[in-house]
Each structure stands twice: as C-alpha cells, then as structure tokens.
Amino acid sequence: MKKSSGYVSIVGAGPGDPELLTLKALRCIEKADIILYDRLVNEEILGYARPEARRIYCGKAPGVHAMTQQKIQQKLIEYAAAGLHVVRLKGGDPFVFGRGGEEALALAERGIAYEVIPGVTSAIGAGSSALIPLTHRGTAVSFACITASRKEEGGDQQEIGKLAMCVDTLVIYMGVNHISAIRTELITSGKRADTPVAIIERGSTEQERIVVSTLDQLEETARINAIENPALIIVGEVVKVREELMRLQQQLPARMEQIG
Ligand code: SAH
C-alpha cells in the first residue's frame, strides 16, 4: 500500500446518464485506488475505474442506510491516511443535497487533502433531458431548488410554500414521499390550483418517466402512475414549454430520431 500523499476526490456523477459525467470526473475515476459510491450513481460509471480499484457501496435508500454518514467519513479519512487516492462518488453534484460539504469539512478538520469535482445536478440534468427549461424568456426569470426531506420526521413543508411565491420555477428534490403535504402547502400559500407541475422519475436514464399534471391533481397523478424515488417535482409555467416542444416534435419525427 502507498504510504504518503493519499487524498480524497469528492466527485459528482451527474444525474444518471453516464454520458453526463464531466471529463474531469472521468479522468479522476480512471486513476482511483478506491471508490466509495452512493445509491444514485449509475453503476456503469464504475466500469471506467481500473479493474483492481476497490468499489464500496455506501448507498442510503430513504430509511435504509448501508453505511451511516459518520462511518462514510471515517472510511474516507482512513483510506486517504493509508496513502490511497479515494474517490467519493455521489449522484448529481456532490454539494447539492448531497452532504458533500459535511464530508469536505470532516476531511479538512483532519488535515486530509481533498478536491471537489462538480457534477450536473439533477434539477438541471433531468429538467433539460425532460425538455423543461427552468428559465424561459417571458415565462420564468428565476428558479429555486429545495428539498422536501427534513431532519425531523414529519416536519412541515412551510419553506416550500414561502419559496414558491418568490420564484417562477420551483424544483423539489426528495418530494415523492411528501406529495400530499407539498400540494396542500403550495395551494395554501397562494399557488394557483391549475399551475402546471411535472414529475420526472429517473431523469436522463433509460428508465426515465415524465408525468405532467396540475398542482390540484398532483397527488392523484403520482398515485396513478406509481411514481417512485428518485424523482423531482418541477412546479411552474415552464412545464408548458415541454408540452409545446412535444407537440412540435410530432411534426418532425424523422429528423429528431437521426439526432438521437
Ligand atoms: N446531489 C444530487 C441530489 C441528491 S438528493 C443532485 O445534485 O442531483 C437525491 C434526490 O435527488 C432524489 O430523491 C431526487 O429527488 C433527486 N434526483 C437525483 N437523481 C435524479 C434523477 N435522475 N431523476 C430525478 N430525480 C433525481
């Protein structure tokens, strides 16, 4: 085992499609001695690592943790201190609802060298793949991202309501298990019941599903379609741009297929 100059690369793996990995992330994965990866990382990406590189799953499905956050941080420190190049691979961007900041702090506090390699966060990656522009001239000049997951179990969704009234497009991460509360909060805060909403499940992957609804029908739509994690909820008029693009696409199918 190498004895000195171990370090940790905290790397974003992008929203799901392995092709959306950055070149910098790819080059880093190719050199890694050991990779600790999360549940939302597309496992195809692990195929870019050297055959002898160790791959350790640290996934956290809602409610089921393969490894606690503290244990993950301990392992990062331990492997880097042993002289290894450690890649901590996380879905999307490591600093967007990814606890990458906590990991960087833990490493810095122990004097372990680290770098952060950004990734395409799912709001951007899944949104664009689903043909939903988060901003659109004349329709939306702002967007915000928020998580519905709260530290305390059953915490309310008041922040979502407040934020929704300040921005044109709202992207909600980790909302699938809180859809009823989100719908109620948004309507109570003043969002119109006919505001368009899209749910993107497994965005940018081959299993991607996109369903469109009004805010009023959101819970019903999610239930009928049996929406599961990981999924994003996009609230705002920009969802209509997707509808228009889909309508126009039907008029040029042959050319669009050539590009795909
Ligand atoms: N760091 C990640 C977010 C991790 S939190 C990022 O930057 O994207 C996990 C949540 O992200 C999921 O519950 C879901 O809301 C969202 N998410 C991640 N990948 C997704 C995908 N491919 N499609 C839809 N939502 C996704």
From TrEMBL:
GO biological process: methylation; siroheme biosynthetic process
Enzyme class: transferase
PROSITE patterns in the record: SUMT_1, SUMT_2
Keywords for this protein: Methyltransferase, Porphyrin biosynthesis, S-adenosyl-L-methionine, Transferase
Keyword Transmembrane helix annotated: no
Domain Tetrapyrrole methylase: 8-218
Signal sequence residues: none
Transmembrane spans: none
A Pfam family annotated for this UniProt entry: TP_methylase
EC number: 2.1.1.107
GO molecular function: uroporphyrin-III C-methyltransferase activity
InterPro entries named in the record: 4pyrrol_Mease, 4pyrrol_Methylase_sf, 4pyrrole_Mease_sub1, 4pyrrole_Mease_sub2, CobA/CysG_C, Siro_Cobalamin_biosynth, Uropor_MeTrfase_CS
Superkingdom classification of source: Bacteria
Stored NCBIfam families: cobA_cysG_Cterm (TIGR01469), PRK06136.1 (NF004790)
Family: Belongs to the precorrin methyltransferase family.
PANTHER family listed in its UniProt record: S-ADENOSYL-L-METHIONINE-DEPENDENT UROPORPHYRINOGEN III METHYLTRANSFERASE, CHLOROPLASTIC (PTHR45790:SF3), SIROHEME SYNTHASE-RELATED (PTHR45790)
Name of protein: Uroporphyrinogen-III C-methyltransferase
Lineage, opening ranks: Bacteria, Bacillati, Bacillota, Bacilli, Bacillales
